[in-house]
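pls design
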């Protein structure tokens, strides 16, 4: 049995027999920073010499940056809650999000500066990341301020940045659907992720560290029978857990080469949530649409602002569905 959550139509939330108007469709709670991409020319780099030649590009990124832009590109009214530095990179993030129509009044100042991630990208699209979270472990969010933004939204999509766990009770209390990206899980009993896993209605995670995500999915389902669990598996497809069932979906490929896998998981989540919660697609079609968004992200190089639009998503979805009929 598929759990039933609140229904969102034209930015009106149906709760029981009441209609509640919301200012935003989704609020993204999490990590916003600058990704520096180092595109390597070879499958390995030579650590025995000092100098290497590469293409180096900066873009707004981290999970919050990618997911908020992904939602906005798909047409959802998007707000954010997060922290950036009072510095060049912080202003770059604000200006970029503003350009996508994203409401940034929830971005506050991190005195330690703006988060950074250095991503080494190999020619086949593989990635090795080095993350600098700045003040993430020391920040205590202003609950009243954050709640004033949360209350205006229908969906909260939460990253696992440490301070975000303090907002989970407010999200639950205010009745939002809560989705959470647990990132690249190694151990489902990881205590750092426990608060997030226990709070969410919909869980996403990457199986990059696991050949088969099914045992992790079943672990979460056994603890939370009403949760939906989605695991992105890259070129191996996607696995989804609902109730007592785990279903594996094949990978999507529409011909474009894989050049950069950064943002694929965020796009999978955004494509699924937008399609299922806001547009009323079936679980199966919503997974396909999420996979299309993820695969599209893999074909764009260091460009969070170039994620798939709703028009493009509909076009690819209709093409693939037409071929499968």
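designed seq:
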């Amino acid at each position: 049995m598929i759990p039933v959550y609140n229904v969102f139509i034209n930015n009106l939330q149906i709760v029981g027999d009441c209609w509640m108007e919301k200012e935003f469709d989704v609020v993204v709670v999490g990590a916003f920073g600058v990704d520096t991409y180092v595109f390597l020319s070879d499958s390995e780099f030579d650590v025995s010499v000092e100098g290497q030649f590469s293409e180096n590009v900066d873009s707004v990124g981290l999970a919050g940056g990618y997911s908020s832009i992904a939602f906005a590109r798909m047409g959802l009214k998007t707000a954010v809650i997060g922290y950036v530095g009072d510095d060049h990179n912080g202003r770059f993030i604000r200006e970029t999000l503003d350009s996508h129509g994203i409401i940034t009044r929830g971005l506050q100042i991190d005195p330690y500066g703006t988060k950074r991630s250095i991503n080494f990208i190999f020619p086949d699209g593989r990635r090795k990341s080095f993350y600098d979270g700045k003040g993430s472990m020391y920040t205590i969010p202003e609950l009243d301020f954050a709640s004033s933004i949360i209350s205006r939204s229908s969906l909260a999509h939460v990253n696992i940045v440490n301070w975000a766990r303090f907002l989970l009770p407010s999200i639950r209390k205010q009745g939002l659907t809560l989705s959470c990206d647990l990132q690249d899980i190694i151990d489902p009993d990881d205590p750092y992720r426990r608060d997030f896993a226990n709070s969410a209605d919909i869980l996403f995670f990457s199986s990059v560290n696991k050949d088969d995500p099914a045992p992790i999915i079943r672990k979460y389902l056994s603890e939370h029978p009403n949760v939906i669990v989605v695991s992105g598996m890259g070129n191996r497809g996607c696995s989804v857990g609902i109730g007592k069932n785990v279903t594996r979906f094949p990978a999507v490929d529409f011909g474009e080469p894989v050049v950069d896998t950064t943002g694929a998981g965020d796009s999978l989540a955004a494509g699924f949530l937008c399609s299922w919660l806001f547009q009323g697609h079936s679980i199966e079609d919503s997974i396909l649409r999420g996979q299309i968004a993820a695969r599209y992200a893999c074909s764009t190089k260091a460009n969070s602002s170039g994620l798939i639009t709703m028009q493009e998503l509909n076009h690819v979805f209709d093409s693939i569905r037409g071929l499968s009929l």
